[in-house]
Amino acid sequence: MTASEQANFNEMYAPDGSVRDAYRGYNEWFGQQNASWLKRKDFEAEGFFRRTGITFNVYGEDDAEERLIPFDMVPRIITGAEWRRLSKGIEQRVRALNAFMHDLYHRQEIIRSGRLPERLFRNNTAWLPQMVGFTPPGGVYTHITGIDLVRTGPDDFLVLEDNARTPSGVSYMLENRETMMAMFPELFSKVKVREVSDYPRRLAKSLAACAPPGAGANPNIAVLTPGIYNSAYYEHAFLADQMGAELVEGSDLRVVDGKVQMRTTTGFTQVDVLYRRVDDEYLDPLTFNPSSMLGVPGIMDVYRAGGITIANAPGTGVADDKAIYSFMPEIVQFYTGERPLLPNVDTWRCSDPDSLKYVLDNLAELVVKEVHGSGGYGMLIGPTSSKKEIETFRAKLKDDPDNYIAQPTLSLSSCPIYTKQGLAPRHVDLRPFVLCSPQGVDITPGGLTRVALKKGSLVVNSSQGGGTKDSWVLDD
């Protein structure tokens, strides 16, 4: 273990080598297993994922064939007490995000108060003027949210970013658990872990609760996918199947008599709730991008007339903006009247001249991100970048400072992964999935743990060589 790895918070081992409370049951079980049997199980996991078809595509690569999601069979474990503290902070943040969305498209009190600069959304392509003055059914904008968290100490969880547009990855959370239970059923008898397999049922229930008035007791739910070539198509099909909902493409839907209708073998059937995995720009060619073949012509008119629920609501992508993220402490306090229970990572907005000067002077120590970036693309990790890469990014910053924010290089916590040499620490983050409806906020215990499989790497995205592991919240 290197000196830098020793400086990071190890979630399994204390500095004196003792096993932390969360991992005691697992560690006892692991120590009783035969090494050759564990190696076979590690090989089995890859075969399970291959048979199930748990794959993703990487955009922009010449060899853009489907790839397996790398899976590590050592779980990431959180105690019940830790999760209860986390849940309070997550719920507070999601409630504030939803209130923020409503305010941005109505009175804009947070702008009037001077807490948020108007320029942050006036020139923001994620802010949709078509949503001004409209309130979605049930008053819910962020039906499904993914809050990315990192850990730097025993009680130190920080929010790295918010995903309120179309958060992905929940299918991997579910398949990771199913794989672990299939491979190690006796382990789950020894260590009591909170369930995640009921997420699709809870998602369907939450979406149904957001159906427009007049939808009836059993509203029709459909999942809108861009199609089989989308990088997350596996997840779209998986969730539709698990919810008992129809998986549709834009060509399967049309507006008939003021309602969105779905083509079936017996004719057209009304859709009440559309869980869309298509970006705003492509949702309605009559309202947004006229060349889009992925959306439904006229769906925004039906939506604004109260004839369908779209989840998440168009325009929620504003919350994914990393410049907006930097104001989240003020946003949480403004809408809840409480101090944020989950702090942000310190962030420099490069649109500010003083912040830009600091960032340019310290590029080699910072992480720089595009405000609309995702998937680990369009970013610079100063400490692991070459001088040429740093100078290239310096030019980008000077040319378009409004497009970037910067953050310190965090000392991310590490969890063990299984290697041929035994357990080895690797950096991780966590994406809990949160459902919001008029009935309240529902947080799945755990979420998706992404792990940087390369030694020393801080990038956990699957598109950048990261993998996933099962996330356990102990049932204590």
From TrEMBL:
Organism: Aurantiacibacter gangjinensis
Name of this chain's protein: Uncharacterized protein
Matches recorded under InterPro entries: ATP-dep_Glu-Cys_Ligase-2, CP_ATPgrasp_2, UCP005522
